[in-house]
Specification:
The chain is an alpha+beta fold. The chain has one domain: Roll (Transcriptional Co-activator pc4, Chain A). Helix content is 30%, strand content 39%. It is built from 3 helices and 7 strands. It has a 7-stranded antiparallel β-sheet with strand order 4-3-2-1-7-6-5, with helices on both faces. Belongs to the SsgA family. It is found in: Cell septum. It comes from Streptomyces ochraceiscleroticus.
Amino acid sequence: MSQTVQAEVMMSFIVSEELAFRIPVELDFDSADPYAVRFTFDLPGDAPVTWAFSRELLLDGLSRPAGEGDIHVEPASGAHLSDVFVSLQVGSEQALFRVGAAPLVAFLDRTDRLVPLGQEEICGTLDAELDRIFANAQRAG
């Protein structure tokens, strides 16, 4: 039986040095897929867009530049747990977002209580075994 963690954070969608829009972003974590987190961006005038990436990448990006390919997360400054940049790229198109580190830390802390980092495989196996046991018990009862 999977459990989820959800949170909504406000991010700044940085269009240029002079222009940024504040947008709500839904953060999701599902214990059935414990390696991933999902960010659903609700950009003005567009349909919501969901990006899934490594929970570990998000954690690493709070303190140092992290990510390869289409997703990069890094601290906005050297100050401990200030703001974080999240950069998403599709082809030649790039979107840059800025978000406070505190709500990301709170979200990651809640995910860690469900499935501790480093324990994803063990928890996945345990969940599958519990589902099997409960299914057998329901058929028997």
